[in-house]
Amino acid sequence: MDKSTIICRCEEISYEEIEEVLTNGATTFDDIKRLTRCGMGPCQSKICHSLVASMIHEKTNTPYFQIPLPRMRMPLSPIKLETLATNSTSFSSVKSVMDEVELEDGKVR
After folding, report:
1. Are the beta carbons of 59 and 19 closer than 8 angstroms?
2. Predicted pLDDT at 92
3. Which of 21, 23, 76, 92 is most exposed, with minimal Cβ within 10 Å?
């Protein structure tokens, strides 16, 4: 593969950038993700994961089944500052993060 080939389209990370990180000791997708932002775009590594796994396999001789999947994060949704500042949900369909949550044991936090 050409060194200028884009592996992660969302973050525009090239083959060369990932290769450099692997050369410097990265061994997992999460290592590469932390150092290059590869896999942190809108697709959340759905497009680049197999290409990166292939590169990890080639550079480290790690079998594919031993390469862990990237750590997934919960999707975020925007919250209006007004919602946070006033603890109000009347102007927004977004639930306030300041609302109390009732736990299974009946306690409120």
Report:
1. yes
2. 47
3. 76
According to DSSP, the residues that pair with 102 across neighbouring strands are: 108
Residue 106 belongs to a domain: no
Q: Which alpha helices (DSSP H) does the chain contain, by range?
A: 15-23, 29-36, 49-60, 81-86
Q: What is the DSSP letter of 99?
A: S
Confidence (pLDDT) at 102? 55
Confidence bin at 106 (pLDDT 50/70/90): low
CA 51/CA 45 separation, integer angstroms: 10
Q: Does any domain span residue 87?
A: no
Percentage of the chain with pLDDT > 90?
A: 54
Helix (H) or strand (E) holding 8: strand 6-8
Per the domain annotation, does 91 fall within a domain? no
Quote the domain boundaries for residue 11: 6-66
Instruction: Tell me the CATH number at 17.
Output: 1.10.10.1100
The answer to whether position 90 is within a domain reads: no
